């Protein structure tokens, strides 16, 4: 019952990660208690010799040496216990972080639909911090708090039943008090964790969106929101600490009264001759040792509840499934410049009332270029996400070179297709590092070819470090168009044979227009290219045009053919305005 009260099944799962280290911690703790018992018996023997022997010092010497040895052994064992506990904690921390990070990476963009990146970060960084203390310190201490008092009360029984009973009652009061408070503590620890996760997510969002907040003159407002979150966190922390301090006071009281009561009863029995003076010393030592593991458990008690609350966040993260999996994959190699066919593809975002795409069917020959056009919200980016297999359609299917897209392993899809998006995030490092991220072992020659094809050389010529110039955090030192060029070079180096280019919407950005036109020329024939197009000039260079309207295909065909028939494409040509911005 006690175990169920204080141990979550997840804790046991985590303890398995730490394996023998947890057992070593428990064993060292129990052995230290054993050394204490040996010291207590030896000291009791010393007292007995001092009071009753004819040559007290000489006769007490062996027991005194044993006591000194036992005290030294106890110190050494407690040191070993702490080493094992730290090792268990660090092992859990490293292992759990690596697993969670791998899981978060496998999830890809799945957290877009649930907790934000800030919440995920709070779980991986701080949640793990609570859990490592929970597994490394709380769990072994819990085991020690059951084993050691149990054994010591047994030993006390051999001296006097009344004394053993007083200690047993004192020992029992501690978990009972903790149980009485456990619901309150659990609720407050959960409230604390929720407040902490909210605060961490808000800080992360604020730092990432700082430029937008400054541009919107919203920093003061965001500051106020952060202050409210910080105040909520402070209140939740105080409430949680207040309740655990109340339990600490009850526990400390039970321990003091238990030790004092047992020693007084033993002293009374010594006065009446039922026990010897040495027994009083023995009871004093053993009663104190009985409560020691409970006292130490108390120190980690708070950690235990925070660990349980953090475990909920981690369990939620672990329960999240990737949006796409390799369940239907075969060993098919990703084809060069593949034909792409969509058959009655439909997709509705989780929780959305209307479909983002319905009944989308078209066939694109391999090596050709498709321009997707349509008003804002018509489903262009959703179609791109489906073609890149960031998400799977709810209905219909997408064929790549005649095979269903899910029959290729995700690693193949990621290697063989690339997205050059409007919002490119580069990793902190140099331009070279970012391009080579696609293939770290690429030769200088291949790197130079990709860099020249994407016109990155024009960018590096202007920068002091050339290709080794740092891009800054998330690529902040480069312009949007320059970041797109680096991303294009990365995609070309990776040898992607399906390329999705998301053209920038800004009508003023002529550099991007040149980039896309150039990219279309570079990739023609070696790549099947899909451009989310906002400019007529881009579309006219494409082999096919797909006009989307409210998630459905309005028109599909070569631009010259579409221009000859009445319809949205002819209307767009007639209106001759940036086509993505049409109402
Ligand atoms: N994560 C999401 N959750 C719910 N609905 C979404 C999500 N992303 C997009 N949508 C909705 O799906 C529809 C299609 O969006 P999509 O981004 O594909 O349009 P788009 O044509 O690319 O728009 P734009 O030109 O403005 O980028 C829109 O109604 C949009 O509100």
TrEMBL record:
TM region(s), chain numbering: 20-47, 59-80, 137-156, 163-181
Task: Name one matching Pfam family.
Answer: ABC_membrane
Question: Membrane: is it a keyword of this entry?
Answer: yes
Main location as per UniProt? membrane
Task: Could you list this entry's UniProt keywords, alphabetically sorted.
Answer: ATP-binding, Cell membrane, Membrane, Nucleotide-binding, Transmembrane, Transmembrane helix, Transport
Occurrences of domain ABC transporter (ranges): 340-575
UniProt domain ABC transmembrane type-1: residue ranges: 23-303
Which family would the database say this protein is a member of?
Belongs to the ABC transporter superfamily. Lipid exporter (TC 3.A.1.106) family.
Protein name per the record:
ATP-binding cassette, subfamily B
UniProt lineage: Bacteria, Bacillati, Actinomycetota, Actinomycetes, Actinomycetales
């Amino acid at each position: 019952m006690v175990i169920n009260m204080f141990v979550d099944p997840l804790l046991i799962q985590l303890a398995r990660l730490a394996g023998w280290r947890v057992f070593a911690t428990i064993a060292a703790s129990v052995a230290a208690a054993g050394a204490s018992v040996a010291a207590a018996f030896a000291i009791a023997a010393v007292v007995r010799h001092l009071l009753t022997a004819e040559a007290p010092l000489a006769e007490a010497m062996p027991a005194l040496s044993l006591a000194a040895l036992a005290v030294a052994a106890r110190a050494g064992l407690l040191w070993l216990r702490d080493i094992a506990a730290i090792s268990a904690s660090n092992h859990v921390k490293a292992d759990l972080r690596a697993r969670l990070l791998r899981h978060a990476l496998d999830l890809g963009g799945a957290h877009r639909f649930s907790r934000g990146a800030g919440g995920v970060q709070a779980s991986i960084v701080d949640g793990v911090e609570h859990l490592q203390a929970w597994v490394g310190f709380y769990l072994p201490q819990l085991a020690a708090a059951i084993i050691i008092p149990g054994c010591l009360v047994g030993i006390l029984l051999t001296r006097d039943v009344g004394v053993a009973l007083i200690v047993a009652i004192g020992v029992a009061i501690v978990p009972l008090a903790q149980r009485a408070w456990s619901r309150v503590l659990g609720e407050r620890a959960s409230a604390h964790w929720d407040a902490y996760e909210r605060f961490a997510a808000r800080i992360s969002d604020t730092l990432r969106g700082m430029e937008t907040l400054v541009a919107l003159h919203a920093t003061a407002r965001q500051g106020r929101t952060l202050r409210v979150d910080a105040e909520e966190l402070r209140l939740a922390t105080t409430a949680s600490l207040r309740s655990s301090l109340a339990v600490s006071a009850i526990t400390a009281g039970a321990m003091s009264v238990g030790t004092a009561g047992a020693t007084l009863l033993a002293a009374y029995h010594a006065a009446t001759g039922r026990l010897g003076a040495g027994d009083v010393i023995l009871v004093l030592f053993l009663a104190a040792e009985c409560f020691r593991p409970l006292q130490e458990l108390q120190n980690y008690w708070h950690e235990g509840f925070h660990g349980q609350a953090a475990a909920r966040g981690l369990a939620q993260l672990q329960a999240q499934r990737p949006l796409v999996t390799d369940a239907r994959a075969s060993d098919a190699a990703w084809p060069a410049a593949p034909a792409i066919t969509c058959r009655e593809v439909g997709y509705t975002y989780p929780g959305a009332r209307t479909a983002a795409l319905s009944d989308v069917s078209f066939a694109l020959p391999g090596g050709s270029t498709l321009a997707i056009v349509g008003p804002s919200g018509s489903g262009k980016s959703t179609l791109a996400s489906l073609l890149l297999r960031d998400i799977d359609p709810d209905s219909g299917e997408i064929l790549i070179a005649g095979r269903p897209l899910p029959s290729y392993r995700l690693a193949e899809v990621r290697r063989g297709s690339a997205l050059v998006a409007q919002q490119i995030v580069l990793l902190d490092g140099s331009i070279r590092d970012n391009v080579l991220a696609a293939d770290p072992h690429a030769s200088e020659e291949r790197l130079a070819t990709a860099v020249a094809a994407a016109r990155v050389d024009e960018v590096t010529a202007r920068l002091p470090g050339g290709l080794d110039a740092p891009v800054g955090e998330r690529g902040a030192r480069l312009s949007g168009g320059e970041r797109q060029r680096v991303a294009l070079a990365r995609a070309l180096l990776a040898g992607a044979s399906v390329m999705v280019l998301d053209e920038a919407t800004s009508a003023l950005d002529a550099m991007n227009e040149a980039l896309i036109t150039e990219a279309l020329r570079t990739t023609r024939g070696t790549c099947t290219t899909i451009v989310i197009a906002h400019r007529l000039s881009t579309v006219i260079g494409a082999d096919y045009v797909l006009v989307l309207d409210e998630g459905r295909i309005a028109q599909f065909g070569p631009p010259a053919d579409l221009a000859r028939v009445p319809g949205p494409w002819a209307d767009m040509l007639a209106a001759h305005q940036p086509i993505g911005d049409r109402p």
